[in-house]
Amino acid sequence: MATLLEMAAQIVAAHVANNQMSKEELIQEVAEVHKALSSLEKGESIAMGEVVEEESSAPVVSRKKAFGKDKVVCMICGKAMKTLARHLKAAHGLTATEYRKKFDIPRTQPLAASAYSESRRQMAVDRGLGENLAKARAARLKAKKQ
After folding, report:
1. The whole model's pTM is what?
2. Strand partners, 80
Protein backbone atom coordinates (compact mmCIF):
# COMPACT_ATOMS: atom_id res chain seq x y z
CA MET A 1 0.00 0.00 0.00
CA ALA A 2 1.23 3.46 -0.85
CA THR A 3 2.26 5.79 1.95
CA LEU A 4 0.11 8.77 2.82
CA LEU A 5 2.64 11.14 1.30
CA GLU A 6 2.64 9.22 -1.99
CA MET A 7 -1.16 9.22 -2.07
CA ALA A 8 -1.24 12.95 -1.29
CA ALA A 9 1.27 13.59 -4.08
CA GLN A 10 -0.86 11.61 -6.55
CA ILE A 11 -4.02 13.49 -5.57
CA VAL A 12 -2.31 16.87 -5.88
CA ALA A 13 -0.68 15.84 -9.18
CA ALA A 14 -4.13 15.07 -10.59
CA HIS A 15 -5.39 18.44 -9.36
CA VAL A 16 -2.40 20.32 -10.81
CA ALA A 17 -2.91 18.63 -14.18
CA ASN A 18 -6.08 20.71 -14.58
CA ASN A 19 -5.20 23.83 -12.56
CA GLN A 20 -2.22 26.15 -12.51
CA MET A 21 -0.59 26.60 -9.12
CA SER A 22 2.42 28.47 -7.79
CA LYS A 23 5.12 26.63 -5.84
CA GLU A 24 3.75 27.93 -2.55
CA GLU A 25 0.21 26.83 -3.41
CA LEU A 26 1.49 23.43 -4.49
CA ILE A 27 3.37 22.89 -1.23
CA GLN A 28 0.36 24.07 0.79
CA GLU A 29 -1.95 21.77 -1.19
CA VAL A 30 0.26 18.72 -0.56
CA ALA A 31 0.38 19.55 3.15
CA GLU A 32 -3.41 19.97 3.36
CA VAL A 33 -4.14 16.75 1.47
CA HIS A 34 -1.61 14.83 3.58
CA LYS A 35 -3.18 16.22 6.75
CA ALA A 36 -6.66 15.24 5.57
CA LEU A 37 -5.54 11.72 4.63
CA SER A 38 -3.79 11.35 7.97
CA SER A 39 -6.94 12.44 9.80
CA LEU A 40 -9.04 9.99 7.81
CA GLU A 41 -6.63 7.16 8.57
CA LYS A 42 -6.90 7.90 12.31
CA GLY A 43 -10.68 8.03 12.09
CA GLU A 44 -10.86 11.75 12.88
CA SER A 45 -13.14 14.20 11.14
CA ILE A 46 -11.67 16.61 8.62
CA ALA A 47 -11.90 20.33 9.35
CA MET A 48 -13.66 22.12 6.51
CA GLY A 49 -12.05 25.53 6.96
CA GLU A 50 -12.33 26.50 3.32
CA VAL A 51 -16.10 26.01 3.26
CA VAL A 52 -16.52 28.34 6.23
CA GLU A 53 -14.23 30.84 4.54
CA GLU A 54 -16.39 30.86 1.39
CA GLU A 55 -19.57 31.54 3.34
CA SER A 56 -18.07 34.75 4.68
CA SER A 57 -19.30 37.75 2.73
CA ALA A 58 -16.28 39.94 3.52
CA PRO A 59 -13.79 40.03 0.62
CA VAL A 60 -10.24 38.78 1.22
CA VAL A 61 -8.82 41.74 -0.74
CA SER A 62 -10.24 45.12 -1.65
CA ARG A 63 -11.73 45.68 -5.08
CA LYS A 64 -8.94 48.14 -5.92
CA LYS A 65 -6.25 45.54 -5.15
CA ALA A 66 -8.17 42.68 -6.79
CA PHE A 67 -7.91 44.01 -10.35
CA GLY A 68 -4.35 44.61 -11.48
CA LYS A 69 -2.53 44.91 -14.78
CA ASP A 70 -0.92 41.45 -14.70
CA LYS A 71 -3.28 39.53 -12.43
CA VAL A 72 -6.77 39.41 -10.98
CA VAL A 73 -7.20 38.25 -7.38
CA CYS A 74 -10.23 36.22 -6.32
CA MET A 75 -11.98 38.19 -3.58
CA ILE A 76 -13.24 34.94 -2.01
CA CYS A 77 -10.03 32.92 -1.58
CA GLY A 78 -7.26 35.38 -2.49
CA LYS A 79 -5.72 33.36 -5.36
CA ALA A 80 -4.20 35.42 -8.15
CA MET A 81 -4.66 34.46 -11.81
CA LYS A 82 -5.07 35.92 -15.30
CA THR A 83 -8.83 35.33 -15.55
CA LEU A 84 -11.47 34.56 -12.94
CA ALA A 85 -14.38 32.99 -14.80
CA ARG A 86 -13.21 29.36 -14.81
CA HIS A 87 -11.85 29.61 -11.25
CA LEU A 88 -15.14 31.00 -9.93
CA LYS A 89 -17.15 28.16 -11.44
CA ALA A 90 -14.75 25.35 -10.48
CA ALA A 91 -13.64 26.46 -7.02
CA HIS A 92 -16.63 28.40 -5.72
CA GLY A 93 -19.60 27.33 -7.86
CA LEU A 94 -20.36 30.92 -8.86
CA THR A 95 -21.06 32.54 -12.19
CA ALA A 96 -19.43 35.85 -13.07
CA THR A 97 -22.78 37.59 -12.55
CA GLU A 98 -23.22 36.12 -9.05
CA TYR A 99 -19.65 37.08 -8.16
CA ARG A 100 -20.17 40.64 -9.39
CA LYS A 101 -23.39 40.94 -7.39
CA LYS A 102 -21.82 39.49 -4.23
CA PHE A 103 -18.97 42.03 -4.20
CA ASP A 104 -20.77 44.91 -5.96
CA ILE A 105 -18.45 44.86 -8.99
CA PRO A 106 -19.73 46.87 -11.97
CA ARG A 107 -20.45 45.06 -15.25
CA THR A 108 -17.93 47.28 -16.99
CA GLN A 109 -15.08 45.85 -14.86
CA PRO A 110 -13.53 42.90 -16.74
CA LEU A 111 -12.76 39.75 -14.74
CA ALA A 112 -9.45 39.33 -16.57
CA ALA A 113 -6.08 41.02 -16.16
CA SER A 114 -5.69 43.96 -18.53
CA ALA A 115 -2.30 42.73 -19.79
CA TYR A 116 -3.85 39.33 -20.62
CA SER A 117 -6.77 40.95 -22.47
CA GLU A 118 -4.38 43.17 -24.41
CA SER A 119 -2.17 40.24 -25.41
CA ARG A 120 -5.24 38.29 -26.62
CA ARG A 121 -6.45 41.34 -28.57
CA GLN A 122 -3.02 41.78 -30.18
CA MET A 123 -2.92 38.09 -31.11
CA ALA A 124 -6.32 38.45 -32.83
CA VAL A 125 -5.11 41.53 -34.71
CA ASP A 126 -1.92 39.74 -35.79
CA ARG A 127 -3.95 36.81 -37.12
CA GLY A 128 -6.31 39.13 -38.96
CA LEU A 129 -9.41 37.85 -37.19
CA GLY A 130 -11.12 41.25 -37.33
CA GLU A 131 -10.58 41.51 -41.06
CA ASN A 132 -11.89 37.98 -41.60
CA LEU A 133 -14.99 38.82 -39.57
CA ALA A 134 -15.59 41.96 -41.62
CA LYS A 135 -15.23 39.97 -44.86
CA ALA A 136 -17.65 37.31 -43.65
CA ARG A 137 -20.23 39.92 -42.61
CA ALA A 138 -19.90 41.69 -45.98
CA ALA A 139 -20.34 38.38 -47.83
CA ARG A 140 -23.40 37.51 -45.75
CA LEU A 141 -24.92 40.95 -46.38
CA LYS A 142 -24.22 40.64 -50.13
CA ALA A 143 -25.82 37.17 -50.21
CA LYS A 144 -28.91 38.51 -48.41
CA LYS A 145 -29.37 41.29 -50.95
CA GLN A 146 -29.30 38.89 -53.89
Report:
1. 0.54
2. 73
